[in-house]
Design brief:
Elements lengths: L17 H14 L5 E2 L11 H12 L12 H12 L13 E4 L1 H13 L5 E6 L3 H9 L3 E6 L10 H7 L4 E7 L11 H14 L2 E5 L14 H4 L6 E6 L12 E4 L2 H12 L7 H11 L2 H28 L4 E2 L6 E5 L10 H13 L1 E2 L1 E2 L8 E5 L4 H16 L13
Parallel strand pairs: 1-11, 3-4, 3-5, 5-6, 6-7
Antiparallel strand pairs: 2-8, 7-8, 9-10, 10-13, 12-13
Helix pairs in contact: 2-10, 3-10, 4-5, 4-9, 11-13
Length: 408
């Protein structure tokens, strides 16, 4: 018998995560002995705080090695609900029954997209945006619709831009603030306008708030800070970025009860509960406010220093860069798309890696091919050396791009 080696239509059009691909290529070149500076990473380069590690050891000693409820251990869900309820001022309450703990915020986002969207639905995605949003929506058999912002607004979208992009098939939107890849933060007024628009139009809002605690200018509001109701609202967060716990794989969603139940049912047939030990570590992370504040302050302070030093170099070189108010990325424009060169960012990134030994993520991964994403979650000396090499490569171009991205 000859087996049909074709992929299922479920995954035939699926693209590999560009951020993971860049890291893999950088690792391969480093294994060949090439001195690669990796500025493609999407994770803090800090150790998990010691108080979290200690709690994990204690949990193991007490036998935290068995299955839990699919939605997570009750104390963790209660801690998540309590923190969220402290911000929420709208109708109704937030309880542990609204929380589903998942294997990272990525699974929580997938659960939300798969539970809410389906064939024929269109989902608005403020763009540039994390590459996996588009793929998750597509896996749900829905249609991702990029909505572009202007450079002068740090590539953030407006309420009007969302309305203009919507059709009768629009079912929801996925928003991320602070943003990956730009580090832009929607302020309270901007976020309120978007949430109110979605409520008026009957769209679901899936809000990815994984970077909300890493912010440099004031605060990054949550949709829970501005929403009058949780109807139509799913909030996704986790411990990966804020607590330097990427490998522990703990994220969660907060959703209306019927949606939380649907996501729990979905998860029961995919991964079941998130790792038991990691859940106990996450509980410790969220319930020691003094230790949390100390570790967060140190990490954000170091990120701020790197950001400011790198921005100083880029400003001196007159580069077009989105100045991040949060997260740990610099988004730099490196070319102008033309019919002959539709993806200048990828060309630039490949040349930068192969010739200058600096790994970055091309903007095409985020649906904006004129840009590159540069992570400053790396030692400061590497960040500044890498940015210096980016500036050198930019200087070799005959023209320097400026202006707004097309809105269609």
């Amino acid at each position: 018998m000859v087996f049909d080696a074709r992929s299922s239509p479920n995954v035939a059009a699926l693209r590999e995560s560009a951020t993971i691909a860049v890291s893999a290529r950088a690792a391969a070149l480093r294994a060949q002995g090439r001195p690669i500076i990796d500025l493609g990473a999407g994770e803090p380069d800090f150790p998990t705080p010691g108080y979290v590690i200690g709690a994990a050891h204690r949990a193991l000693d007490h036998g935290a090695t068995r299955y839990t409820q699919v939605s997570g251990i009750a104390p963790l869900r209660e801690a998540i609900a309590s923190r969220a309820a402290g911000r929420y001022r709208g109708e109704g309450t937030i309880t542990a029954d609204d929380v589903v703990v998942s294997t990272g915020s990525k699974q929580a986002l997938f659960n939300a997209c798969f539970a809410l969207f389906g064939p024929g639905d269109q989902v608005l995605i403020p763009t540039p945006a994390w590459t996996s949003y588009y793929e998750m929506v597509s896996l749900a058999r829905a249609v991702p619709v990029p909505v572009f912002g202007a450079v002068e607004r740090s590539l953030k979208v407006t309420r009007q831009a969302l309305v203009d992009a919507a059709t009768r098939e629009t079912r929801g939107l996925v928003i991320n603030s602070p943003s990956n890849p730009t580090g832009a933060v929607y302020d309270r007024e901007e976020l309120t306008a978007i949430v109110e628009c979605a409520r008026e139009e009957g769209w679901w809002v899936v809000s990815d708030e994984i970077y909300r605690s890493i912010v440099y200018e004031g605060l990054a509001p949550s949709v829970l800070d501005v929403a009058a109701s949780r109807e139509g609202l799913v909030v996704v967060d986790g411990v990966a970025k804020a607590f330097a716990m990427t490998g522990w794989r703990i994220g969660w969603s907060i959703a209306p009860p019927d949606v939380a139940r649907a996501m729990t049912a979905l998860q029961s047939h995919t991964t079941s509960n998130a790792t038991t030990l990691a859940q106990h570590a996450a509980l410790a992370a969220l319930t020691n406010p003094g230790a949390e504040a100390d570790s967060r302050r140190a990490m954000v302070s170091e990120f701020r220093r790197r950001r400011d030093a790198a921005l100083s170099l880029l400003r001196g070189a007159r580069a077009t860069v989105i100045e991040p108010a949060g997260a740990f990325y610099l988004y730099i424009r490196v070319g102008t798309a033309t019919a002959d060169t539709p993806d200048p960012g990828t060309i630039f990134a490949e040349r930068l890696l192969e010739d200058s030994h600096v790994a970055v993520v091309p903007g095409a991964a985020f649906r904006t091919p004129e840009w590159i994403r540069v992570s400053f979650a790396a030692p400061e000396r590497d960040v500044l050396e890498g940015v210096g090499r980016i500036i050198e490569l930019l200087a070799s171009h005959t023209t320097h791009p400026r202006g707004s991205l097309p809105l269609s």
